[in-house]
Amino acid sequence: MSDGFDESSPVDEPPAGEALLLDIDGFEGPIDLLLTLARDQKVDLTRISILALAEQFLAFVSEARRLRLELAADYLVMAAWLAYLKSRLLLPDPQPDEPSAEMLAAALTLQLQRLEAMQGVAARLMARPRLGRDRFGRSAPEDLPIFAKHRHDLSLYDLLKAYGDISGRQARQSPFTIPVTELYSIEEAVARLEAMLGRIPDWSYLSALLPGGWRGEGVKARSVLASNFVAILELAKAGKVELRQDGAFAPIQLRARRDGEGGT
Amino acid sequence: MTDLFNADTQLVRLLEAILFASADPVTEDALQARIGPTPVRPLLLQLENLYRHRGVNLVASGGRWAFRTAPDLGDQLRTEVEVTAKLSRAAVETLAIVAYHQPVTRAEIEAIRGVATSKGTLDILMEAGWIRPGRRRETPGRPLTWVTTPHFLDHFGLESLRDLPGVDDLRAAGLLDKSTPLPTLPGLEVVSE
Amino acid sequence: MTDLFNADTQLVRLLEAILFASADPVTEDALQARIGPTPVRPLLLQLENLYRHRGVNLVASGGRWAFRTAPDLGDQLRTEVEVTAKLSRAAVETLAIVAYHQPVTRAEIEAIRGVATSKGTLDILMEAGWIRPGRRRETPGRPLTWVTTPHFLDHFGLESLRDLPGVDDLRAAGLLDKSTPLPTLPGLEVVSE
To answer: Helix, strand, coil proportions of chain B in percent (round to 5)?
Structure first.
């Protein structure tokens, strides 16, 4: 709820040019940023240079990445699309069945105009004399609720909020939604490796046998590694696998223990 | 109309607006403080006179001023007076469940809310004209079901029951207070109900 | 003063008192029901005219009537009120889009703004009493639409949606046209709801 309100004024225009980079969070998405860049061209939106705009946006994104600023995925998608549009605008249109570069540019212009129109009227709407701020109603309605056809003062919002609360409560009470920690259990690792034993080639690196989708950084990945490490120790102890390591911190290798061979 | 831009007239307009918008009668001192050096009393008397025969009068009592509806209209205003009462949380939730799950039996309402529903809750909703008994469910005990009335749609400005936002809509609108589901362990995926 | 006992004048006084006593705008139908067979509209216009230059005006919005303090007195009245929380840019833009494009789905709002609507934005606008769910769109997925409420008109002092600032210009410029076919732009895909 708190994110619906903030300190910045709704009509504040973000600063242009280089100062843009200081305030990525001030933009409501890539279209909003494009609109701000377009305003820098100080011409009618129908006459802006889409090519120049694409250049500026791409420069913005590469500068943000150079400064290692976190950019949302939609900015990168927009950058890729603008790079494509730029190449289409610079080269003659090869495929007649695709929309022409001019059509794409016109669509983008219309999109910018539409957002600009909404931002403009939003400011005009907010500037109107508003009830409770500039205009006031009767604060002391007399005890004559003669139009109270409804004996209960219940709004649709109240009703929907009540149902939302019930649904939320139900979801929490459901036995299936007990939060499960994102850790990979040793039991699971043992069971999985045991099932794989017959199929693994001779000596294999442990790292190659970790489950897919669990690689990478973070607690999850470390728990996979730890569980599987403990699991192979357990399996070795039970005489089911053989382990090998060429030196301290070298990759661990394992293979299924062959029948008839002795212990390690 | 030239009078409109006369300073006194502007002050009378301001007094009129203050008295209209104030929740309680306002003291003459407070009014004086609001309008500056011009003596407030003659302006108030002017306003009182202006409204003397209107449907609303400016009245003073105990040094405080307020607009009140004219006493002679009392009878015509006081007909049909109904007292609005706040609905209990149980009643609001029950109404919401009937709206979304109708036709729904009392036992089903209780199962969804997780608590027993008092007989009075359904009575209140029925008295308000929002719900009515529907068909009996053809199951053992033939329990009565509850459904909403046309007045329910009317009150909440809905054209049809199909226009009630679904759970996904509520969630998207931020109305659903939900706990974040966490990824589950492989092999332990939740089977949705 | 003899006029005072003229039947029409009595009805005007009654309307004045009813409207004065009620905090929320009253529908013309409800007022008509209160005064009997005499057409209510001319009487309301008479009353509107009577208060046109006063500190309190009679205003119509969305077919409902209410007394409201004159807009030009806002600065002088505002000192007494607490500052209302400022709406976020997202909320303000979303409100404008709902107002000018209604009925509008969440996906359409997102297409115009080029970003996902955060949870809580629609919630806040609905809690403020400015928007409500409208009919479902009869397209695949039957998405819910959003529309503005009568209270929206009252809050922003609009008699009807036709009085939205600049609405005619935007329509003439084709900027309110939902059917404008756009080639797919990034971030503008209409997501299914």
So the answer is: 50, 15, 40
What ipTM did this prediction achieve?
0.68
In the block, tokens 């149902």 appear at: A163
DSSP letter, residue A212: T
Phi, psi of A243 (to 5 degrees): -120, 155
Enumerate the residues of chain C whose CB falls inside 8 A of the CB of residue B34: 76
For residue A46, give the nearest of B174, C175, B127 by alpha carbon.
Answer: C175
Candidate from C71, C84, C112 with C-beta closest to A118:
C112
Helices (H), chain A: 30-40, 50-66, 73-90, 101-126, 156-173, 186-196, 206-209, 218-237
Instruction: Look at phi and psi of residue C114 and say left if phi exceeds 0, alpha if psi is from -120 to 50, else beta.
Output: left
Long-range pairs of A131-134 with CB within 8 A, sequence gap ≥ 24? A131/C68, A131/C154, A131/C155, A131/C156, A131/C157, A132/C81, A132/C84, A132/C155, A133/C74, A133/C78, A133/C81, A133/C84, A134/C71, A134/C74, A134/C75, A134/C77, A134/C78
* Residue A67 to residue A58: CA distance in whole angstroms: 14
Backbone angles phi, psi at B134, to 5 degrees: -105, -150
Q: Which of B13, B77, B80, B82 to mutate to test the interface with C (most CBs of C within 10 A)?
A: B13
Residues 6+ apart with CB under 8 A from C15: B55, C31, C34, C35, C40, C43, C44, C47
**How many Å apart are CA A241 and CA A186, to the nearest integer?**
16
- pLDDT, tens digit (0-9, with 9 covering 90-100), for A170-209: 776 655 444 455 677 788 888 888 877 777 777 877 877 7
Among chain C residues, CA nearest to B70: C17
Q: How far apart are CA A253 and CA A209, in angstroms?
A: 10
Q: B184 near B135, Cβ under 8 Å?
A: no
Min distance C169 CA to chain B CA atoms (Å): 30
Q: What is the pLDDT of residues B5-31, one digit of tens each?
A: 577 788 999 999 999 888 788 889 989
Cβ contacts of C20 within 8 Å, gap of 6 or more: A138, A142, B55, B56, B67, B69, C67
Of B15, B73, B163, the CB nearest to C136: B163
